[in-house]
Amino acid sequence: MNILETKGLTKSFGGVTANSDLDINIEKGSITGLIGPNGSGKTTFINVVSGVHKATSGRVIFNGQDITNFDKHKIARAGIARTFQTIRLFERLSVLETVLVARHASFGAKIWDAVFSTPKLKMANAREEARAKELLEIVGLGKQHYHQMGNSLPYGYRRSLEIARALALEPSLLLLDEPAAGMNREEFNFLQDIILNVKQQGITILLVEHTMELVEAVVDHCVVLNYGQKLTEGPFCDCESDPRVIEAYLGKEEAEC
Amino acid sequence: MQRRKIGFLIIALLVVLYPLVIGDSYKVYIMNRSLIHAIIAMGLVTQVGFAGQISLGHAAFYGIGAYTTSLTVLKLGFPIGLGFLAAILMCVIFSVFLSVPSFKLSGFFLSLTTIAFGHIVWVIIVNWQSLTNGPLGVFGIPGLKLFGIKFNNTHYYYLLVATIALLYLFIKRITNSFIGRAFMAMRDDELAAECSGINTRNFKLLAFGISAGFAGLAGAFYAHLSGFISPESFVFAESTKFVGMAVTGGLRHLLGGIIGAPIVTFLPELFRFPGWETYYMMAATFIILMIVVFMPDGLAPLFEKGFNKIFGERDDVKGGSSE
Amino acid sequence: MLQMVLQNSISGMAMGLLYGVIGIGVCLFWQTTGLINFAHISSAMLGAYFFYTFHVMWNLPIVIAFVLAVALVALYGILILRGVVYRQIMGRKGGRLEFIVATMMLNIFLLNLTIVLWGGVPYPFPNIFGSPMNPLRIGGITIQHHSLWVLGFTVALVIGLNYFFKRTLTGKALRATAQNKDTASLMGIGVEKMTALSFAMSTGVTAIAGILLAPIYFVSVELGGGIIGIKGFASAVIGGLTNPFGALVGGLLIGLTENFSVFYISSSYRDVITFVLLVFFLIARPQGLFKKM
Ligand SMILES: Nc1ncnc2c1ncn2[C@@H]1O[C@H](COP(=O)(O)OP(=O)(O)O)[C@@H](O)[C@H]1O
Ligand SMILES: [Mg+2]
């Protein structure tokens, strides 16, 4: 069963068609890799699915429901969480608070609970804080980090924090945009464990990544984009050896040199 | 902990004794004016400092509040308490108009929109003469009374102090809760907040609503305290002054408004030496400019630090508040 | 009827061009900094006061007084606005909010400084741009000499700026900096110098607007505290903020709207219509009318 299906999804920015007529299916419970050279439209795909950009045409079906161009927060609450290629944390929030932001809807409290500091809110606070700590544990952020500012963490931890914030939505689909970019070996290995761990909890993952080692190690299925179009899809090893894919990557590199 | 309690007690005592020691009715009147401004600045701290939604048009809400209570009391015969409520309600309703542009705009564009809003309201106040009596203003607004005793400046002072204490508790509870977290997330990165499931529209409405309600309440106080209102109290320069107060005190500090408003009000008085009359406003605005440029967190953190130094730190201030 | 339309158009145009010139200053600032300076209009006020001081009080020739006044305001732009306020706030990675508030406070301080230095009483501006008492009359339409001067200055400014941006190396470098600071820096352009230059140009151009506004508003703090500055912002926003010449069109639109709304609706609600126009543009067309230059 597919958790996410896009039908003819197209996004253009003025003259540039960043996503062109994409039919992409993501099977429930799987890790799908979305690869392709720089500028091929991977981030744009995540942006359209998560509601950050409005689709020019085409549809996004999530769990059988058409969610095309829904508001970002509605998509998030429906169960699609994401991270960002360039890390976006909250400048003045601590690690724990950052995760709690995404727990907002789970509080089940109203403004009056805050004003009168009701027992209901106190219970919700305790419950959500406990859950946030669990999530931080999963991504490897321990007690000593809870009250540090998110942006003051080392790079790898900041990526982990973004993942924890995304997981705090209790999503059924997690969109990761180049999570391994800029990581050192140790962080990289740990990230791999996190991803497999998340999968094990039954969360479907779409992984956009340039580090083929990671893609190879974790994905079940692979989709290759080039110039906004789907070039091919299939198991990773098939994609990797596909001459069109090799040409797309090489052609790009030559052009860049 | 004991020492901190003593510290709070001393401050409370100073606040309570102030009008009794000063005894000077005019000085207390000026203090009351600054406390009224403090209410507005507290609202701005919530809206601008915590929720990140700038407003340079708050004089409009101040004016709407003042006129609403005056006109409902004078023309419709409302009791004053109901006039206060009407003032707050009217401002909250108007705040919806102003928050709708904020769904789309932020930063400079939002600030220009709020300036435009402030001007439009002001021009309407000046020109809708049949309702507002135009530039001449509204006279004879009755003062507050309790058990048949007319409020003097000292009574107003205590009422304002109590009101501010309540409002402080209100914004403290809100900003320290999941709502305040959503405010700050929205302020720091709107997109990331929305992708984390925060419906920023609701929080913009809430932030604008709270601070407009505060300004409306302040306007109502002002009308009944002074007995006379006219459009010149609600011009653009007043809006900038309110923001200046919030920033001087500390835009991201809960005490920012309460500390900023009296300082900005009384700073010029400090420079009123004989022979210096022409310079005092310049000197005061220069100091405020320096605070804004060189001390982005305002003066409240300094006060907090000073307090902690004298009366000891809070035990739970560092690390693991709930551990 | 036609005559009234023409008369209103001409009066509206003169005022609109002045809003537009202020707007050009706003754009020159926005181009390189991505910020709006809320002390912008105080440059106009300072320009008018300096000119008045040099020409009327010190009896310097008009041209010298003019150049000195504009240069002095530009110097203020580089040394105080950029050297202190901008540098402090951007140096600690302060946000737009801080810059908005700081420049607002700067404006208030400059108003008070002006009151101390020159007193609060408005000075009448000498009739160097022609007396309002004997305007040109062409077939029943009156045209103030001042309006013609405004038109002349604006045309000269447009030609000068156009030449500067399109033909000179510095102008091209400034445009490159406005497009992308990193790329410009890689190309060997001194970004710091370019920023300083844009501060000087922004404040200088606004000073010129101030001197031209003085015959209408007198040499008074009204120039620096009133809502003319907001109308300058509005012109720039309507023009698209990134295109200085768009600001002129924005200014004209505002000037004409004002004049016709005074004529057809009521003078009391003149500013309301301007601000509604501004908000309409902000919401419906935040990118303004014109593309990046
Ligand atoms: N917000 C945007 N505005 C204009 N063009 C964009 C925007 N986002 C992406 N693009 C363009 O869309 C294309 C695809 O970009 P992107 O999705 O970021 O690629 P990838 O993530 O695969 O590297 C690029 O040509 C890029 O310049
Ligand atoms: Mg990308």
Question: Keyphrases for this structure?
Answer:
heterotrimer; A: 257 residues; alpha/beta; Rossmann fold; 2 domains; six-stranded mixed β-sheet; five-stranded antiparallel β-sheet; 10 helices; globular; B: 323 residues; mainly alpha; two-stranded antiparallel sheet; disordered C terminus; binds adenosine-5'-diphosphate; binds magnesium ion
Could you please describe the fold and organization of this structure?
The complex is a heterotrimer of chains A (257), B (323) and C (293). Chain A has 257 residues and is an alpha/beta fold. Chain A folds into 2 domains: 27-55 and 69-79 and 171-257, Rossmann fold, CATH 3.40.50.300; 93-168, no CATH class. Chain A has helices spanning 42-49, 72-78, 95-102, 111-115, 119-138, 155-167, 185-200, 212-218, 236-241, 243-256; strands spanning 2-13, 16-22, 25-27, 31-35, 57-62, 65-66, 80-82, 173-177, 204-208, 221-226, 229-234. In chain A, strand 8 (173-177), helix 7 (185-200) and strand 9 form a beta-alpha-beta unit. In chain A, helix 3 (95-102) runs parallel beside helix 6 and helix 5 (119-138) packs across helix 6. The longest helix of chain A has 20 residues, at 119-138. Chain A is globular and about 60 Å long. The mean pLDDT of chain A is 92. Chain B has a domain at 30-235. Chain B has 14 helices and 2 strands; from the N terminus they run H-H-H-H-H-H-E-E-H-H-H-H-H-H-H-H. A two-stranded antiparallel sheet of chain B has the order 1-2. In chain B, helix 2 (25-50) packs across helix 12. Chain C is mainly alpha-helical and 293 residues long. Chain C contains 12 helices and 2 strands; from the N terminus they run H-H-H-H-E-E-H-H-H-H-H-H-H-H. In chain C, strand 1 and strand 2 (141-143) form a beta hairpin. Classes of the chains: A alpha/beta (257), B mainly alpha (323), C mainly alpha (293). Chain B binds chain C through residues 48, 52, 54, 56, 101, 104-105, 107-109, 111-113, 115-117, 119-120, 123-124, 126-127, 236-237, 240, 243-244, 247, 251, 278-279, 281-282, 285-286, 288-289, 292-294, 296, and chain C through 35-36, 84-85, 88-89, 92, 94, 96-98, 100-102, 104-109, 112-113, 115-116, 225, 227, 230, 233-234, 237, 266, 268-269, 271-272, 275-276, 278-279, 282-283, 286. The complex binds adenosine-5'-diphosphate and magnesium ion. Magnesium ion binds next to helix 1 of chain A.
